[in-house]
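Write out this protein's structure.
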Amino acid sequence: MKKLIVFIFTISLFLPWPARAAPLDDLRSDLDQWLSSDAAGFLVWQYSGPKDKYFENDPYSFYQGSPVCSTLKQAATKYPDKFIGVNIHSLANHPTQIDDTFSYLSKECGVSVVRVWGTPDRGDPKLVLDSAKKYGVKIIVVLADYSNSSGDILPGPIRANPTAWYTAGYRDVYLPYIISVVNSLKSHPALFAYELANEPHCSGIDACRGPYKNWANNVAQEIKRNDPNLRRIIKSKNYIHKDIIYLHRLIEKIRSGDCEKIKWKNLYVDRLGNKWLV
């Protein structure tokens, strides 16, 4: 029997949270509400390392020593069958800090999943997976970045109308690159999933719907062909947007043809009010 569990990313990018509650109260409430449901986990955007040596200069960050960390650890203890995750886009670009980062996040924050970029400008993802294995952490490897472009792999200018790229253009540079990544990480025990691209969408263009779905399905099958034992591939479900709010992710379990959707919440800290830069 096929199982379906949904990855849902819920974000609060543009609307400020009400002033009624402190940031950590909101986080605790979200964690309890989400992890007590059928969700598989909760991914926070994002962790940024020691305060004086951050990996990402991002307004959604929290640092080592932040009370956000202890709040996540409490949730991980309370819901041991669910995962707690964070994003660290460029972790592979900081090889001397990878081990310390996983040690801190796993022991102090209860983090068991980390999402990183696997694009050429973000270092070698194998360094991250090799370290993660030692600390029992699993890695989501994002293979390209639609929203911010990935150079020749996924060029920024296509966002004006990505229909042609989803139809055939992806085969020129993007597909050979991701197959090389998949082959280099094949059967790695720390691999949680591949994500076909960060926030891919159709820029509100109706004609893009069909090519988009074909792109996602074709690339997923190519990945499966190169790594038959791979368990999960993440691709966007909500593929036609008139803005850049991304609410749905689909994770597919492709072993033996089974499809499994897994629901999680990806919390973006409110940039206007409740910054967790502590």
